[in-house]
Every structure is written in C-alpha cells, then in structure tokens.
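Re: your question about Uma2 family endonuclease

S., sorry for the slow reply, the queue was backed up all week. Below is exactly what I fed in.
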Amino acid sequence: MAAPAPEYPFDPLIDLDGLWTVELAQRYLPIEGMPPARYEAVEGRLRMSPREGSANSWATLRLAFQLDGPARAAGHALYSALNVRTGLSGWIEPDLVLLRERVRQQTWIEAEQVLCPIEIISPSSFHRDRIDKPAICARQGIPYYMHVQIGVADAQVELFRLAGGQYVKHAAAVSGEVFQMTEPFEFAFDPIELLEVH
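Result:
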C-alpha cells in the first residue's frame, strides 16, 4: 500500500498563484508573518515589493503638498497610495492617486474614478512603473499617468495624456527647470522641490 501524499499547509503565495482577485486579496492580504510590502496583481499573479527608501518617501510627500491645492481648486482629490482595480484579477497601488472627485470610506477604487496615477520610480520598480503599469492604465482608459524619478542630485517629472489608446507626453521637466502642465488643471513647479538635499 502506497504511503499517503504529505499534506502541506495552505500558503496563499503558492496556492493562489495566478488566481488572485480583489476578493481573495480582501481575505488573505496582508500575509501574516511577511514584512510590510506593496501588494499588486496582474492577471491573477501577485507582485510584492518592499517600501522604498527615504528619497522616494520624501518626494511623495513633497509632491502631494505641491499638487493638493491646485487639484482641490479644480474639483479633484489627491490621495496617497490606494488600491486601484484594473480588472477582475488585477489591481495596482500607485504612490499617489489623483481621483476625479473625493471618495468616502472606499477600499477598492475603480479605474473610472482615477484621473491620474502617480508613481515615484525606483530601481526595484523601474520596468513595472514605466512600462507595465502605464500599459495597464491605458487599457483601463485612465486619462493621465505621471512618473517621477529621483536621482542622487536631480529629479525628473513626466506627465502623459491618453490619446488613441496610448500615453503621449504632455509635460516634462528636470530639477532646475519648470514643470508646467495645463491639464487636467494648471500647475507649475521646479522638481528640485522633491529632493531631500534641497
């Protein structure tokens, strides 16, 4: 008589690979015993990444301070990281999210509520934030997408506008220049404001 197959305890990272949905995320995330992480999913596959360093954290906060007033004056609402649903088996968590209008007690944000995801890019998320996520957001019809890249002594900001199903550059600047956009509202600043050393 053959020995019974060993039974392994349920592990959501293994047993749910390729099956992740928003409903499963609500049930199993965050994963007990794991360090704090950003959880995102693409086509049912969970992607985890550690929180970024102080330079990105500083830039996120400074950019939020810069954008909040103009966004509210235009009737929009700026939030820190939110879960943005990108289909039945996916979601992203941008560093900042500009919504069309303020929400109340909402855990999962629908793509049609989003005006512009804002990603502070780092080496660990470079490909995902510059290539994968913009493609996902474009498929969802999100009208704008913003990248911010922080270097040792410089910062770069790029805003993209959806046109013909893909993003085209609307405004860009590096530290020492003026980043100026006219839509979705008027806003201008020098990206040098995002640097810790400034």
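The first strand starts at residue 37 and ends at 42. The mean pLDDT is 89.

Happy to talk it through on Thursday.
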